Amino acid sequence: MATNFYFNNFGSSQEQNLIEDLVIESIKIYGHEVWYCPRTIVNEEKIFKEDELASFNNAYSIEMYIKNVEGFEGEGDFLSKFGLQIRDRITFTVARRTFADEVTGGTRPKEGDMIFFPLTSKGYVVRFVEHEAIFYQMGSLQTFDIVCELFEFNQETFNTGVDIIDDTYNDLSFAMANNTQVVTQFNISTIDKQAQNEEFETRGDNILDFTEINPFSEANTY
């Protein structure tokens, strides 16, 4: 049996605009003001489609709603073989019309872009954009759900014009550069005057000879 043709639940533009206005107003009331930073590709690697020299040259102030209100999701903080890792995940909701009006040249959020959250003073990289979270209210879609993870700085350049963003990551870049310089100048013989590395290598069979191909083997030939 067909639906009642006297009621049009999915084709009324006035009803669609009303719902969109209510969504935008709700996000303005219950949301947070964040900075949306589009990623600019500088030198894309053709095989893996990656760019270690990416830059962020713009930042757009825009209101977004946080869906996971009880705290960060994801794997959180854990120890791995690479040391302490933080895998906080957060989901932002932004109105489609607001995003199109506020972000220059932006029709939708893109994976790889960054959202700077002033409440935590941290950036979150966009991992996935869900465009059908609310299933076609009155026949239209009003929002994007943006799934983000904590941004891991990798020598990207920040020239957004927003001091809190540029200063945060440019200071981090300076600190990483200094640490690299310290590592390259590291020499155990100059730091530890009591080191006996040469004696351990040349003393004889009582101590492992690290010049052998396989010092742990009992065979005569290697």
Can you tell me about this structure?
This protein is 26% helix and 27% strand. It has 222 residues and is an alpha+beta fold. The chain is elongated, with a radius of gyration of 27 Å. The strands form two sheets. It has a six-stranded antiparallel β-barrel with strand order 1-3-5-8-7-6. Strands 2-9 form a two-stranded parallel ribbon. The protein has a domain at 13-162. A hairpin with a 4-residue loop joins strand 6 (114-117) and strand 7 (122-130).
Number of helices: 5
Low-confidence stretches: none
Approximate helicity band: 25-40%
Which of globular, elongated, flat, extended, rod-shaped describes the shape? elongated
The arrangement of helices and strands along the chain is HEEEEEHEEEEHHH
| Multimerization state | single chain
Mean pLDDT: 80
Largest sheet: 6 strands, antiparallel, barrel
The helix-and-strand class reads alpha+beta
